[in-house]
Amino acid sequence: MPGKFEFRISAMSGKLAKGGSVYLGVDVPDFRAARLALGGLSIGYADGARVPVAPTTGSRAKVSAPFPLTLDREFASTDTLRVHVDGVAPAGARLSAAIEVVDAASGKVVASPSPSFSTGDRVRVDGLVELRGLTPGAYLLRATLRDQSQKASRETGFVVR
Question: pTM to 2 decimals?
Answer without folding.
Answer: 0.80
